[in-house]
Amino acid sequence: MRRLHLIELEDHDWCPAAVRDAATDYLQFGIEQMQPYRAIVPRLKAALQQTKATRVLDLCSGGGGPWLGLLSHLDDESLSVVLSDRYPNRVALARLQHESGGRLSFVSEPVDATDVPPHLRGFRTLFTAFHHFAPKQAEQIVADAVAAGEGIGIFEVTERRLGAALAVFLVPFVILLITPFVRPFQWSRLLWTYLIPAVPFVGLWDGFVSCLRSYTPGELRGLAKPVGGDYEWNSGVERLPGTLWRVTYLIGIPRLARGTTNAEK
Length: 265
Known about the structure:
This protein is an alpha/beta fold. The protein has helices spanning 17-34, 41-51, 67-74, 90-99, 135-147, 162-167, 171-178, 187-195, 198-213, 217-224, 255-258; strands at 55-59, 80-83, 104-106, 123-127, 152-156, 231-239, 246-254. Strand 4 (123-127), helix 5 and strand 5 form a beta-alpha-beta unit. Helix 1 packs across helix 9 (198-213) and helix 7 crosses helix 9. The protein starts with 16 loop residues before the first helix and ends in a 7-residue tail after the last helix. The model is unreliable at 260-265 (pLDDT under 50).
């Protein structure tokens, strides 16, 4: 399937904040329940060790992403994570900060992944977010990390495959089913889900478009190649054993941090 950069509704300023936050809440609920990103724990752990990182800056965090679960799998008490987003879902991020005992914190102001403020340091990660960016912007995200000398890990569960795109048509029904179980409870979520079914529609549309926007491992390597910098790049697909979940990844590590001159992978 050819990549199509169609419009995702929640990317835009005119999308009501309550609808955007509800959509990210549903995505967060699914990530927390199914934990598909367990598939990349060994690779992420190795990257953090190679860069000697004790702090992660998570970009485009939405409702928080997989970090609450990942912290327990990474088994590193010294590691802290700062969550950030262009449209921060402050209620959801504050909940994760509380539940993590402060190991997760968040930036309450908007953060542009293509131009990260220099005071926000740490190994950079993006989960279920990179497909939101057109190739030029995606390259800028990678270039900004390289310019700052930070390692970067990009991870996606969406794929540009027919089967993945067709599975998205189940999303509205799942949203209608799980709404009573999403916490913290918000009346606005009920309004935009049941009375005005904007959230099921956004979930269907943005989920389908996310598949069409997703990058392949080869395309990810192609975005990193012209950026330059003395980095080792590694990309591919990891499957979570016993499930249908697949995670596409791109990991960039400064060779200076590794103390190696290995050829690019």
